[in-house]
Write a structure and sequence with these properties.
Blueprint lengths: L3 E6 L4 H13 L4 E5 L5 H5 L3 E9 L3 E2 L1 H11 L7 E7 L11 H12 L3 E3 L2 E2 L16 E2 L1 E4 L8 H16 L2
Helix pairs in contact: 1-5
The structure holds flavin mononucleotide.
The site of flavin mononucleotide (FMN) has 23 residues, from helix 1 and strand 3.
């Protein structure tokens, strides 16, 4: 079993591809991947370190797998957990809702006592509003825009993975 559980939801495969990129860079022996369509609280409980990934859909809504799991998510044990979030979205097409899902899940995690890591600069993005924008120049997690800036994805993931390695202490 790896040290980190990565839990993602993806409707059209983009978040899944980024999840696999993150796993590859951190090591398959370090990260175990779960699609949230098929996950239980026991899977989360196995790990103290979580990476949570999701796309945002339909004007700020959680991607369907995370939407279905949201009630159960709120009941998870967050105390003692360290969590890094990453989100996929479209900063121009959905400029008022860019990666809102990260903000929705991240807020619950903070309120329930988790430690969040993996904050990411908002520089280089042109969204108008985002629930994931903490207002201090950072998003609550890595922001990936495959619709408009796919050429930056690999570089962003690589940099973020180095950052969370340090913050997770692995
Ligand atoms: C109908 C539709 C609604 C969307 N709504 C949002 C949104 O509210 N906020 C956002 O940041 N991105 C939004 N997106 C962009 C998706 O999040 C983006 O394409 C993402 O890469 C999809 O990831 P997935 O393949 O993992 O589902 C929307 C895309 C579509 C087609």
């Amino acid at each position: 079993m790896g040290k980190i559980g990565l839990f993602y939801g993806s409707d059209t495969g983009c978040t899944e591809a980024v999840a696999e990129m993150i796993q590859e860079q951190l090591g398959e022996d370090v990260v175990d991947i779960y699609d949230v369509y098929d996950v239980s609280a026991e899977d989360f409980n196995k790990y103290d370190k979580w990476i949570i990934g999701l796309a945002t859909w339909h004007d700020g809504q959680l991607v369907s797998a995370w939407d279905d799991y949201f009630d159960d998510y709120q009941e998870l044990e967050f105390q003692g957990k360290t969590i890094a979030f990453f989100g996929l979205g479209d900063q121009y097409g959905y400029s008022n809702y860019f990666i809102d899902g990260v903000g929705t899940l991240g807020k619950v995690a903070i309120e329930k006592g988790a430690k969040l890591i993996g904050f990411w600069p908002t520089d280089g993005y042109e969204h108008d509003e985002s629930k994931a924008d903490m207002g201090d120049g950072n998003f609550m997690g890595l922001a990936i825009d495959e619709d408009n800036q796919d050429e930056l994805t690999e570089e962003r993931v690589t940099k973020w993975v180095q950052q969370i390695k340090g913050e997770f202490g692995i």
